[in-house]
Each structure stands twice: as C-alpha cells, then as structure tokens.
Amino acid sequence: MKKVVNTAIVAACALLAGAVHANDVTVVNFGGANGDAQKVAFVQPFEQSTGNHIVGVEYNGEQAKIKAMVEAKQVNWDVVEVESGDLGRGCDEGLYEKLDWSKIGPKSGFIPDAVQTCGAGIFVWSTALAYNADVLKTAPTGWADFWNTKKFPGKRAMRKGARGNLEFALMADGVPPKDVYKVLATKDGVDRAFKKLSELKSSIQWWEAGAQPPQFLVAGDVVMSTAFNGRIDAAQREGKNLKVVWNGSIYDLDYWVIPKGTPNKALAEQYIAYSLASKPQQSYAKHIAYGPVNTDAIKSLDAATLANLPNSPANAKTAVLQNIEFWTDHGDELEQRFTAWASK
Amino acid sequence: MYSAALTVDATVQLKDEMHQAETRKRVKALALVAPLAIFLLLIFVTPIAMLLTRAVENPEIVTALPQTSRALHDWDRRQLPDDAAYVALVHDLAQLQDGETLGGLARRLNTEIPGYRSLVVKTARALPFTDDAGHPLPEAQWRKSLIGFDARWSDVVYWQAIAKNGSRYSPFYLLAALDHRQDAFGHVIAADPDASIYLEIFERTFGISAAVTLFALLLGYPLAYWISTLSARRANLAMILVLIPFWTSILVRVAAWIVLLQGEGLVNKTLMAVGLTHAPLELLFNRIGVYIAMTHILLPFMILPLYSVMKAIPPTYQRAAISLGSHPFAAFWRVYVPQTYPGVGAGVLLVFILSIGYYITPALLGGPNDQMISYYVAYFTNVTINWGMACALGGLLLAATLVLFGIYRRFSRSELGIG
Fold first, then answer.
1. In 10 A of CB A98, how many CB atoms?
2. Is the whole-model pTM more than 0.90?
C-alpha cells in the first residue's frame, strides 16, 4: 500500500514538474506602452537567443504581493519591476535578493543611479509638464506658468499624491531645481509647498493612471498636466500634438529586483543582465521615450531619439533627480498630509 | 425480592442504553455541524482575531532592541539617557545588520519620527566602531562615537521614541486611526491638525451610509407596498425586475452608471433635450454619483425584507380601521405602518451595515472627498504595507458595526426578519 502511495506521489510530482516548464522565468512589469516596449526589446530577443520561456505578468506596483509571497515562502515571481521609492524600503526589509553585480555587468558601464544593492536600474523616466500645442498658442516654459491661471486659464491635471507635486510647487514658488530637496527637508519648506498647491487647488483635476494625462489633454479637459514623458511620447507617435517641457522635470529610475527565495535566481540574473546590455537598451529607447541606463547605449543613440529622452545631456540640464532617500524617510508622513489636504 | 432487584437492574440498564443512544445522537449531530463550525473557525473567526491582534501588536522595537529597551525601562525620558543605553543600542544594532528585523525596526521608528529610518539603517551598517588602525573601540567611547556618527543621537526625542515602545502591545495604531497619538510620556494627545484625517473620514462614512439608507427607504417602501398589493403573478414579475439587477455584478452596474452619468451620457443628454438644463450637470466623480449608484445597488436589500413583512400583514386590519371611521391615510399610518416596523428595521440595518463597508463604488464614482474608510484600509494594505494601520481601521469599523447591531437588537427586542 505504502509503495502505491509513494509511486502516486512521485507520478504527481513528475506531472506537476512537467506542467511548469523547467526554464520558465516569470517577469513582472507595469504593462501598458512600457510593457509593450519591454516585450519587443527584451523578452522576444531573450527567448530567441536563450531558448528560455518568459511568463509575463502585469501588476500595479503593490509590494504587498511580494511581501505575502516572501513571508509564505511561495515565491513564484522571478524578476519584478519596482519604482525607486519601494526599492530601498523593500531592500531594508529583506523582500529582495541582494544582487551579484558580477553576474549582471561591469558597474562602470551603467549610469551611477542604476547600480543599487538590491536593484538594477532598467530605464530613466521623467514626470514633466505636458500641454496640448493645438490648444495653447503660447508655450508654457516651466512650473511658474503651470501655476499662472491668468495667462493660461483652464484646469490642470496632477497625479494624486505628494510625490513630485511638492517639488513642482516649490519650483513654481521660485526655488531653484538643485535646492528643492534642501527646502523640502524643513517643516517650513513643506508648509510652503502645500501653501503653493492650495493656490492651484480649485483648478486641479487629479489623475491616478499614467494613461489619463494624454487623454485629458487630447479631450481638452485640461490645458496642462504633469505626465510621464513616455505616455506623452506614445500619444505623439499616434499623431497628437502634445509637447513636453523638460525644464524642472523630475527624473527617476525603475529597477529590476529579484524577490527573496525565488527558485530561478540564476535565470533571473541572466534575464536582468540581458536586458541591460547595450543592444536591448537601445532598442527599448527607440520604442518608448525612456532613457537607457547603459552608458554605451546612450552614446550610440541618434539625435532624434535623444531629443525625447529624459536623461539626454540637453534635457537633463534643468531636471531634478528624484531623491529616493528623502521619499523613503518622509513618504509616509507627506502622503498622509497630502491625503488630509486633498480631502478637505 | 428477586424480581424487584431484576427490575432495578433492568431500569439501570435501560437508563444506560438511553444515555448511550443520546450520546450517539449528540455525537452524530456534532459531526454533522463540525464541517461548518471548523469552516467558520478557520475562515471567519481566526482571521478576525488575527486582524484585531495585529491592530495592537507592536513587536518591532522590542524584538530588535531588547537590551536598549531594558536599559531605557527606568529612564525618566527628560534628559539624555546614560552611557549604558548607548552601549546597549550599539550591541543591539550590531547584531541586526541586515534583514527583516532591521527593516521592521526602521519602518516602525520612521512612523514615530520621519527620517529615523535612514538614521537607524545607516548606524547599523557603520558598526562596529573601530579606531583608525581598525581595532574595535572600547565601550566607554561608544556614546561619543554614536553622536559623532550622527548628531541626532544626542537629541532626546530619538531616545523617547524607543523608550515609549518598550511593550509588545501598544494602542499606537488604534489611536492613530482616531487622529490621536501618545506623547513621549505616554499621555494621549490629539494629532497634528495637518495630518488629522480619519475622524473626518469616519464621519463621512457614516454620513454617506445614513443618506443612502434614507434614500433606499424612501424609494423602497412605496415599491414594496405596491408589490405586496399585486396579484401573485404580477408580484412575481415585479420581483424579477428587482432581483435581476440584484444578481448582476456590482462592477457591471458601476460601469453602467459611469456611462449613464458622464457629461455626454444619457442622463445629461435627456435633461438638456427636455430643456431642464443648458449645460451638462456634474454627476460623476462627486457625492451625487456615489449616492445614486450606492442607492441603486443597495435598494434590493431594503425591498426584500420590507416585502416579506408586508406580504404577511392581513389587509383586514386596515379595512377594519377605515370601516370604523378612520381616514384612509390615518389608517395606513397608524395601523399599517407600525406593523411593518420589523421590516423597516431589518432593511435599514442591512443597508446601513453594508454601506459603511463600501469600497469599489466610491472608489470608481467618487472624487477624493467621497472616499470611505475601506478605501484607506485598502491603501494601507496594498500601497504602504502598513498592516497595523489597516487592521486598526478595519477593527474600528467592525466595532462600529457591532455597536449598531447591539443598539438595534436592544430597541427591536426581536430577531431579524430577513427574507
């Protein structure tokens, strides 16, 4: 009897193992235009050159899912795209594996911000001022114009949350981009930012999904919006006359992480290394206007592509790098204050 | 004599047998109920108990800093602590280095003082303190080294934050969910008005629920009355019209309301075509949209208990009142309506309790000022992973529901007559 049971168990295990292909890697990203670009630039060539199969999963950045998997020791995500704000926190709390950079590439081959303990930068993206050039006859030049409802009457759209908006408010109030986080680190600076936001509050329409700003702009619901530059670029490719103002934009990186305890760690590292190589990085930047982290790839891109990238030398000049440490320390406090402010 | 003894024996035996039969019956009954009892215990009681404990659990600081907590136990929390506390902190932090315990500690301390997260992580990574030659420093110099590493270690508030969390359980999250906090000495004080938000949201949650309950009663009562007067065939037809939306997915109904209520939607177009308005009304992403959709979704929960009660009321009482000279409206109001109170009570309670937990309808149809408490439970669970806060808000919502149910039971003195 015991033997029969054992045989049955072995057979069941063999079946299960057969159902989950041995060389499957589960890669999780945010989907959308970005996911499509990753599919063409990273996933398909990786599958062709290595013969491994990529299982694509989309999520909205909820780290709760990773936390639940790691705590239950049932990790079935191998490579996950996370935003910078979650990276430091998750790394401190032991949600992610520490990366072995010798398996990914020479650290000097990447822009400095891409190389982190638990995360490898994938691309550089930016939150910038965007407007519909068919509607606005004079082009706005920065955040002061965004706040100027006399010169540019109409609603503005902003992302619902403190992150980014506080920096924009300070820049509109005359703080130079390089001092934004110095001012924001003080209580007076935070008060000043919220006061400036209050000035504009009645004209703000909030957005939550990255796809909304181009929709609002095209439909004429708002005259200006904060937006992810890649989404505006995607709308431009569809023939919409939307424009980006790079002055005072905030750029940031998305990172690959490996959830702690994944059984496919080696394959996960292989996929990360592949996606960060020069060729796939160039191909990615051509499909969506997010900047490469591979320095070699930046050098090899043509001028037309570079003009739309957040970290091209010209566009990065007046831009601010999102201060991850500031937001890890103050994020909870400021988001709560923002929620209280927005609901009043 | 002999026969009497036999009878006694027989009686004892009979008693035993009966007792055995009864036990068997009881075991059988228990066995039949057991699956449900175990299911409820596992799926319902245990998670709620875990939720409630998680709302008061505060293990991060004691677990990560046991020596420091002990060293600070008798500290007066006014002046900086003595050298022993500094030594204990360095010992504790040196053992943590990386991993979950340090991360949990950093996150918890950051909720006390923003910026504490990076301070504690940086300090832990800099340990152990060594001199220029790489030899470990003696304990006597650790205080100076800590303060030299980051001057914040000479600020008393950072020590107070550790000292006041010297217990494994704390009302921290529950107080925060009620816009209060404990100061350095454990006194409960109101939170900073800039960050106060939850009392207002609880108030809003109950306000929206009360309004929706009222609308559902005003719409549901006449309808239920009308259906109860119809013939069986017509009543069935009318009930189907009530039940089909009831059986339709909530998401589908919410999406349908978005289509109907939007600026270019059917409602606004009709109003403008009839000439009642000239510009489209704003019916979406504000309180009006939330009221309309929630009332529609919850209406069957009002109609069904009302209908079942009304169906059982004999029409003869009302007729008798009228034949004895009462005005028909007075007969309705004084004879019929009081008999429907159990249905009204059940319907109101059902709708109100269901609406205070509503999440998806306000999230999709409301603006930032229309979100109810469940939105923040989801926010803390998924976005910030602050499960203590999520559990505290959920626990308070549960407590409010139980209190309401208790009040209802007390006043109605009757069981719920639902369905």
1. 13
2. no
